Amino acid sequence: MTNSGSLGTIIGPSILVALVYMTVFEILRVRWPQFFSPREHGVVHAGFLEWIPNTFLVPEEEVVRRSGMDAAVYLRVQSMAAFIMMLLTFFGCVVLMPVYYMGEEGLTDLNEISLSNVRQLSDLLWAPSVMMWVFTSICFCVIMTNYNEIYKMRLNVMGSGEGQEYSVMITKVPEHFDSDEKILDDIQKKYPGRVVAVQTIHDESLLDDIIASLKQENLNLLRSQQRKVKNGGRKYTEKIGPFSWVGVGKTVDPVAYHAENVKNLTEEAKKSQSCKGPFVGVAFVMFDSIATATKAGSTPLSDNPDAWIVQPAPKPTDIIWENVIKIPSASVKAMLDLTKSSALFTICIFWSIPVAFVNAFSNLHTLADQYPWLAFVRHADPFWQSVITGLLPGLLLVLLMLLLYPILWYFNKSTGILTYSELHYQFMRDYFFFLLIDVFFITLLSSSILDTINEIIDHPKSLFSLLGSSVPAVAIIEIGYILIQGLMVETERIVRVFFLLYAFVFHTTSTTEVEQEQASKPEEFAYGGNLAFSSLIFTICFCYSTIAPLILPFGLLYFSLNYIIKKYKLLYVHELPFETYGRFFPKVADFMFTGMIIGQVALMGVIGLKFGYWQQLILWPLPIFTYLLSKYLHSYYGNELSNTRLPLSIAAGKDARRSEERVRKYLREWCESDSWRQPAVSVDISSPLRSPRGPPKWESNRDPLEIKLGGRADDDDSKDEHGFSSTFSIMKRNKKGDIVNEHAPLLNARDTRPAVIFEEKL
Question: Is the pLDDT reported for residue 749 higher than 90?
């Protein structure tokens, strides 16, 4: 696959599929808003293609307000990569392509505008060497600028002031502290007068099973009742049992049968709910101020490193409850991590076999010389030859990588990770390196070097010239992968074909509103997986930016499409279950720096194969500079961004701006909402199909003292020249009862409010 004909067979179908998906989306989004914009509860931008400019123009501040800082950071990664690709595309088309076109090798077609067309020892080798410095400098400037802006954003928006920021999660609690009162007495000794409530976590697996059966029986009862109504109120019978679908089983009145089951399960659930299961060594402790919780979350509670492990409490929606109730010991955790690493290494080795097999399709012409049974490829129509050697390998490679997704997700989740944010973070790291090995390195080896082995054996003296010309040719294969991933996969994700069909079937066949609502509920946003794909595409584009600059416009297309599609989904479809305030960005930046180093080393290798030793010499400092800059940025910004703990100055400022009465009321509501208990415990047994109410929002409890500040309740009144908050506002009432605003230095904040202790326990 090294000619424009093969590339055309990918571009044509990819554009066609993308147009089909976008047409389907444009038609259905105004007819089925509960599926395509569930967060808005209505049609978003009803005009034809009106959603594209309106979504694009939504400012970053609004994204943060509606979807959180993590959503804004994800979109910033896409816009940052798109901006880099735009600049690199300009220089690649204006400088490198004309230089390569003047090469002396006399190659034709797409190879004519790649480094393959430059002969050995040519002075034209200076062009890619100098442009690699330019491209690296552009990436340095853009990444450093975004690092700084994301850090500022974090300081300005960090801390939602919700209930989890008043709380800490304690794991590895000794078994004899198996009640709220025992833990409360112990924590009160360390933080006297500051503890509001304690919630111990117990194994409620039995209750989970009962609630699941109760929900199913309630659904069956609703279906039976609605069917009876359709029959005019007349009784009817049906078969039940494992073979009821073939007419074999016990004949019953379905309404009476399921009503009796609901009654029995309700009594069983009430009995199970009143009896706590075994204590699992986990507890949530709520304090009367954010500052106290921040201190507690950063301070060890015991001199035993294997007991009383304390950390800031995550959002209730961020908790993986099935892992919380079975936290492994340190030794078991180490074994699980080792097993996962071994399994992933084994999968990586064996997964490379089908990847190499798929890439072999691009070399069928060469393989036909060795295997006569493949001779039919030479006699096939040129169009079908291009499809087999161009489109098919790219499609199969994309499918293989998508099939890998659930396998890696399962292995990471099985290691006992407690939160979805940490799970996405670990998954992103593992998935990126899998993609890097299989999509980049295995493709490079199986499609270029292996393709030239026979020629090298026959003509050993041509080793370097053959490798120097074959490595750039692989860029066309990577272009095909980027096109399919961008135009086919990304546009499918705005339509969500599988979930669309699933919802359509339920809406047309289901007789209950509950099932229809559940079918329209959006799936979880693949935060870690999407960032891994973006990092891979950036790596591929940068690696071939000076070797085959034709790849750069396709990288720009991918990141532009990804930005607008994901921005729509994050604003109107998905809600992220967690908020890490940009924790993922340092790791994504590290991935980008890794891709840059790979690209620099790859160019040095190709130029070395063409005996450009002087050009190779000026490239040697680049990987070193890139590595040092990545370490510097990670230590200067990355360590702070990777730490999700709330700074004490911000916590103290939030406490000072909130009245005691409102805080007491809010924390009481939070305690009564059972937010720190498993979802099955908070289900209303009398109406199990109704979604349990979530934890209260502070916005609904905002005090006039905060509203008086204007704008966001959490905004500080004064900022320095960089936009950072330097003071916080203390709102008080004077003797006349008027609200007054006093300013105090942020770092000198002291919490002098009296302790708030609730008698209610969860």
Answer: no
